[in-house]
Specification:
The chain contains 13 helices and twelve strands. The protein has about 350 residues and is of the alpha+beta class. Strands 3, 4, 8, 9, 10, 11 and 12 form a seven-stranded antiparallel beta sheet that branches. A three-stranded antiparallel beta sheet has the order 5-6-7, covered by helices on one side. A two-stranded antiparallel ribbon has the order 1-2.
C-alpha cells in the first residue's frame, strides 16, 4: 500500500525516532523535534490514519506510537535507498581479508565477527554448499594392514573422511595407485555421473567407489549447515531484552542449531526482498520464539557451484539501512573467497 507524501513523512519520522530511541513517539514529539510546517492537529490526524491502516500502534491509549511489522517493511522498501557502506569501511574490511591466508573457514569466522561489529546485532554465516556435489580429489591412507582412510575433497571445499576395511592386506603403494586411477576417472564428477561411468574396476575399487557415492549422497541431502554465530551479547544488550521473559526462549532456539534450517524448510512467501537481501520481520518468522526479531539474509557464493548464507538477526528496531549495506558488502566479499577456493 502506498502512502501520501505527508503520511509517509510522518511514518518515516516515527520509525527513525523509534529506531534510535526505543521509546513510543508522540505527536508532540514530532511537532517539537522535527519542525514540520503543519499544525499538531494535522500530525494527529495523519497518525490516526496510519494507525487505522496498520502501520503504527499504541502500547497504551495515552502513549505514543510504535511501528508495526508492516511499517518496518514499508520503511525498508519505500524509504531506504540503495546504499553502500562508506568507502573507508569497505577498504578496511577488504584489507583485513586480504591479509588473512588461512582459507575459507577462517574467512567465514572472520566475516561473522566483523559483521556483528558493524550491525551491533547477531551476525551469522553458513559454510557454502554445492548445488551439485562434485568430487575434487580423493586420497587413501593406510591405517593398518586391512584398514585405510578414504579422504574426499569436494568442490565446495568440504572434506569428508571414511574408514574402509578390506578383505586382504593392502599397502600404501597399492592405495596410492588406486587413488590415482580413481582420481583420473572421477575428478569433477557428480554422484550420478560416477554411477553412470563404465570403468573396469577391481573389487577394492568397487568398494571405494561405493563408499564414495554414499558419502556424496549424504552430503547432497544436507541443507545449509549449522551457522557460525557472533554478537549475541550485542543484541541482548539492547533495551528490548532487559527483563524480557522471552529472552530465554530466544537463547534456547539459537542453541539448538537447527533454527535456520527450519526456516528454509518452510514457505517464507511473506518475506520481502531488498536488492539481494531477504527480509523476514516479526510475525513472518516461522520460529515462534523469534517473532520479536527481524532476520535479514543474503546468499553468497558462485551460482550453480557453491553457495552459503550470510545474515543479521536482531530486534525489529534495528538499523535496516546499515544492516542491508553491510550484508551486501560481506556477501560480495565471501563470494570472492568462494571463487578462490573452487
Amino acid at each position: 500500500m502506498s502512502l501520501t507524501g505527508r503520511r509517509e513523512a510522518i511514518l518515516r519520522i516515527i520509525v527513525e525516532d523509534y529506531l534510535s530511541g526505543a521509546a513510543p513517539v508522540a505527536s508532540k514529539t514530532i511537532v517539537d523535534k522535527y519542525g514540520l510546517k503543519v499544525s499538531p492537529a494535522t500530525i494527529r490526524n495523519g497518525m490516526a490514519h496510519l494507525e487505522q491502516e496498520g502501520y503504527i500502534t499504541r502500547p497504551h491509549h495515552s502513549a505514543g506510537s510504535v511501528p508495526t511489522d508492516e511499517a518496518y517493511h514499508y520503511y525498508v522498501e519505500s524509504v531506504i535507498e540503495d546504499m553502500e557502506l562508506p568507502l573507508a569501511e569497505q577498504y578496511m574490511i577488504y584489507e583485513v581479508f586480504r591479509e588473512t591466508k588461512e582459507g575459507l573457514e577462517q574467512w567465514l569466522k572472520l566475516a561473522v565477527v566483523w559483521l556483528a561489529h558493524f550491525v551491533h546485532n547477531i551476525a551469522l554465516v553458513t559454510y557454502p554448499k554445492a548445488s551439485q556435489c562434485r568430487l575434487k580429489h580423493l586420497d587413501l591412507v593406510a591405517l593398518q594392514d586391512f584398514v585405510a582412510l578414504l579422504i574426499l575433497v569436494l568442490h565446495e571445499a568440504n572434506v569428508r573422511q571414511q574408514v574402509l576395511s578390506f578383505d586382504r592386506r593392502i599397502t600404501q603403494d597399492e592405495l596410492t595407485r588406486l587413488a590415482n586411477k580413481l582420481n583420473a576417472a572421477y575428478a569433477g564428477m557428480t554422484r550420478s555421473e560416477i554411477l553412470a561411468s563404465r570403468l573396469e574396476l577391481s573389487s577394492e575399487e568397487k568398494q571405494i567407489t561405493r563408499c564414495l557415492v554414499d558419502v556424496m549422497a549424504t552430503e547432497g541431502k544436507l541443507e545449509y549447515g549449522r551457522p557460525y554465530l557472533e554478537g549475541l551479547h550485542l543484541m541482548l544488550g539492547q533495551p528490548e531484552f532487559a527483563n524480557n521473559p522471552r529472552t530465554l526462549n530466544i537463547l534456547e532456539v539459537l542453541e539448538e542449531g537447527d533454527w535456520l534450517r527450519n526456516i528454509f524448510c518452510q514457505e517464507l512467501d511473506k518475506g520481502k526482498v531488498k536488492g539481494r537481501v531477504k527480509i523476514i520481520i516479526g510475525e513472518e518468522n516461522p520460529e515462534e520464539a523469534l517473532r520479536d526479531l527481524s532476520l535479514l539474509i543474503s546468499q553468497y557464493g558462485v551460482p550453480d557451484k557453491a553457495s552459503g548464507i550470510v545474515g543479521v538477526l536482531g530486534p525489529k528496531r534495528m538499523d535496516y539501512a546499515r544492516a542491508i549495506s553491510s550484508l551486501n558488502c560481506f556477501s560480495t566479499l565471501l563470494s570472492n573467497s568462494v571463487t578462490e577456493c573452487i
